Amino acid sequence: MKIRITIITVLCSMSLLSQEKDITTSLYDTYEKYKETSITKRRIKHQDIQPLISQYKGKEGYTVKKVGESIEGRSISLISIGTGGTDVFLWSQMHGDEPTATQAIFDILIFFDSDDFKTEKEEILSNLRLHFLPMLNPDGAEVFQRRNTLGIDINRDALQLQSPEGQILKRVRDSLNADFGFNLHDQSTYYNAERTAKPATISYLAPAYNYEKDINEVRSNAMKIIVFMNRIIQKYAPGQVGRYNDDFEPRAFGDNIQKWGTSAILIESGGYANDPEKQEIRKLNYVSILSAIYTISNKSYEAIAIDDYEKIPENDRKLFDLKIENINYPLLGNIYKMDIGIQRPEVDKKKHSDFWYSSRIMDLGDLSTYYGYETFNASGYTIKPGKLYPTKISSLNELTTIDIYSLLEKGYLYVTLNTISKEALASPAPINVVSSTFETPTDLRLNIGVNPTFYLEKNGEIEYVVINGFLINVKDKKGHFSNAMIFR
After folding, report:
1. Which residues contact 265 (CB under 8 A, 6 or more apart)?
2. Which fold has domain 2-316?
3. What average pLDDT does the segment 438-447 reach?
């Protein structure tokens, strides 16, 4: 009899997993149909999402409720749908500069408002009640910063509740007494899955609820959902999943929400090659979160073993935007072989709606245990300082009339602009723009924090240049480039 019951259980489990595989594939393949196209940049603001929230007010099956205000008086809203007995609470942008999942939430809402996937949606909405809080820290989002206007990290305010936003999150969680909670964040693009060159595109954590890191049913359910979601991400971004250290942080909301009885699933959106606005990661959020909601609705997650949770690689932080290996570096009459690690920090423009890159050398020496989104083996190449082009230009527009690559091939990496306006922040062409008083370096000294601009010479010929941290092949004019610098 036991054998028969076991066989039936296995067959049911296989059937459910097959269904979820089918819905996951369909969700991925049809995503563009449900993508909210009005918010495709990361620097979204409170005003951008108000029309998206308003369209669900008064719509049958939806409840839209203002649950509070930020310090600066911006409304914080909760959108609810479904009639089931299991409550699932999803909140995003606790940190103002972490909006990837906020965008995915509106994609998910479009999915539920469509006429497609009727069977799956009926199953979800009859078993669950879903609650979406798209933007918890609208003041931080306004200036694209992590903390709120008070200067508090809301995610460290679960005990004292000193911030209005923290108070709102606690009040909503308690009023729902949610069974599952999705704590949605962004992380640095420089995290990698440990001991691999793969970026941690998505990272997970089932937070501990005590210092002993005990696993009760609440936390175990969170682990099972994470194992399930990891399997999905592996299909579309293999090897690009990380797991956060689960040391207990008594002030953190995730840890306390787990402690308060809600199965808390932390999702962090990291980096993905050539995806600066994280739109592919947004898609992965959409697919994996919806699939997780589906497995919660049919309870197939219950059959998942939590042993696989610990098999997810831990997060590491050993990624550069550009890693140059084995370069010859001439210094004081000698040649030294070394590696260079370069990152491209973003600098916000005045209204926090766009940005430019101001790259920096972040490390030098033996970087054999580090990785790059782009890695260049510079064996046989010698690094040299760039030269100043002798002819001045009168405007940035004039750069479009110059054969820039011809200049790069000759080692000219700087050009003088007679008058540089205050509004000019970065050079649109792959050459640095300098003022007439700027002293162009004639001697190359590599140091941490220095802007990476130089050329790479082999057998007396320039083949590559690095402009503001972007590697360009001057022969075939290939290379990822965004902007060069303006030095006054």
Report:
1. 180, 181, 182, 183, 204, 206, 222, 225, 226, 229, 292
2. Aminopeptidase (3.40.630)
3. 89
φ/ψ of 226, rounded to 5, equals: -65, -40
The separation between the first and the last C-alpha atoms of the chain, rounded to the nearest angstrom, is: 82
Q: How far apart are CA 6 and CA 134, in angstroms?
A: 42
**Whole-angstrom distance, CA of residue 42 vs CA of residue 100:** 7
Size of the chain, expressed as the number of residues it contains: 488
- The Cβ of residue 238 has, within 10 Å, a number of other Cβ atoms equal to 9
Query: What is the fold, at CATH topology level, of the domain defined by 319-487?
Result: Urease, subunit C; domain 1 (2.30.40)
Contact indicator for 262, 88 with CB cutoff of 8 Å: no
At 198-245, the pLDDT tens digits run: 999 999 999 999 999 999 999 999 999 999 999 999 999 999 999 999
Is 70 exceeded by the pLDDT of residue 6? no
Residue 479, Cβ neighbours under 10 Å: how many?
Answer: 16
From residue 436, give the alpha-carbon distance in Å to each of 38, 394, 412, 414.
Answer: 43, 12, 16, 11
pTM of the full structure: 0.93
Domain ranges of the chain: 2-316, 319-487
